[in-house]
Amino acid sequence: MNGDATTIEDIVRRNVATLRSKANLTQQGLADEMRARGVPWTRETVAQLETTNRRLGFTEAVVVAASLDVPLARLTATGADVVAVGEGEWTTPYLFAAVAGTAGDIFTSESYSATASPPIPPSASTAPTPPVAPAATAPDRLEDRSGRMTGRRRNRDLSDDEVEFVEAGRRTPSSQRTAERIERRMRLRVTPGDVDNAAQQLWSRSLESERERRVSDRHARTGGSLKTIRGHVSRDLDRELAHEMERSADTDRGPGTVPMTPEEAAWEATRLNIILANKGYA
């Protein structure tokens, strides 16, 4: 196996850390979410997973995905061309299709059984091996969904709705970030205006006002961490807004629209999982 290939364990470890941060969860917060779903994790368990070679079992992976509110395939999303799986190497398209259950017979064996050739002793070499170019380091700036280059987060203790970006010089509107999160749940294009309209339809107030109302109410009742409460409330609001938008989309469909068969619905779910797994990986 090529020692330079990224292992699937490394990919999952980095994705869990990134997704946890995006969900506004501390390591203790993720451990609490796991315990609530029947897996007795501690903060140390999360730290070991994110910083060491601790492997994630299948049951744990399912519960982690549920706790982070992402498709299971999102844990394996990567930009690498080749991924080390066991003693072999898989191409990334094959990995995504395998996780989604759509690999079938469309891939050749080279897609999942690639292994490096054994090293040739120096005496048997007829020509010097060209030096391998060093891997490019990650850029210090990230490209957001609109194509603009933005700075990395200055402070990861801030919630998603409070993160400041270097280039923008001001706080990112929460409606925009909420629209991006909901768009990942749905196959519809979602804009900040859609979010604002749905919020008015549901609560007769802005998304920000409803969020602050719920955060204040829950904090008064539980006395928990404001950051953790804000993360939970944001995910609750996302789900309610997505449900409202899906309901509105179903209402707006023309009378001639034919509902999907169960087979078509299953394939559509698989297709969306593949899209989500490839979208916005870090």
Keyphrases for this structure?
mainly alpha, 5 strands, globular, 434 Repressor (Amino-terminal Domain), 282 residues, 6% strand, 3-stranded mixed β-sheet
Polypeptide structure, described:
The two termini are 24 Å apart. This protein has helices at 8-22, 27-36, 43-51, 58-68, 92-100, 174-185, 192-203, 207-222, 226-252, 262-278, and strands at residues 6-7, 82-85, 88-91, 141-143, 149-151. The strands form two sheets. The protein has a three-stranded mixed sheet with strand order 1-2-3. A two-stranded antiparallel sheet has the order 4-5. Helix content is 49%, strand content 6%. It has three domains: 6-118, lambda repressor-like DNA-binding domains (434 Repressor (Amino-terminal Domain)), CATH 1.10.260; 139-171, no CATH class; 173-276, no CATH class. It has 282 residues and is mainly α. The chain is built from ten helices and five strands; from the N terminus they run E-H-H-H-H-E-E-H-E-E-H-H-H-H-H. The chain is globular, with a radius of gyration of 22 Å.
